[in-house]
Specification:
This is GIY-YIG domain-containing protein. InterPro entries: GIY-YIG_endonuc, GIY-YIG_endonuc_sf, UPF0213_domain. The chain is of the alpha+beta class and 94 residues long. The chain has one domain: GIY-YIG endonuclease. The chain has helices at 23-31, 55-65, 68-80; strands spanning 2-9, 15-20, 44-52. Strands 2-1-3 form a three-stranded antiparallel beta sheet. The relative contact order is 0.22.
């Protein structure tokens, strides 16, 4: 299985999008500072993911999510799912 995933930075309230074949290992790498693009944005939480049978599909979804149109559509999807509020920040319980 391959995954497209969205991480949320608790430090700067920004999203990071990626693709991997091992979701848990990749999240641990991000939070251990092993990824240059998120090293200074830790801690990160897994906000959303999609599972794909083909690596090419997960990579395609990642590329789409990083485009202007895809990024806006992804934010709307996360808002409609109740994961982000209207300001684009995570909805905390309570």
């Amino acid at each position: 299985m391959f995954y497209f995933y969205v991480l949320y930075s608790l430090k700067d309230n920004r999203l990071y999008k990626g693709a991997t074949s091992n979701l848990l290992r990749r999240l641990q790498q991000h939070n251990a500072g092993g990824t240059r693009s998120t090293k200074h944005r830790r801690p990160l939480i897994l906000l959303y993911f999609e599972e794909y049978a083909e690596q090419s599909a997960a990579l395609s979804r990642e590329r789409w999510s990083k485009s202007l149109e895809g990024g806006a559509a992804l934010r709307e999807l996360l808002k409609s799912a109740g994961l982000l509020n209207e300001e684009g920040q995570i909805n905390l319980p309570g």
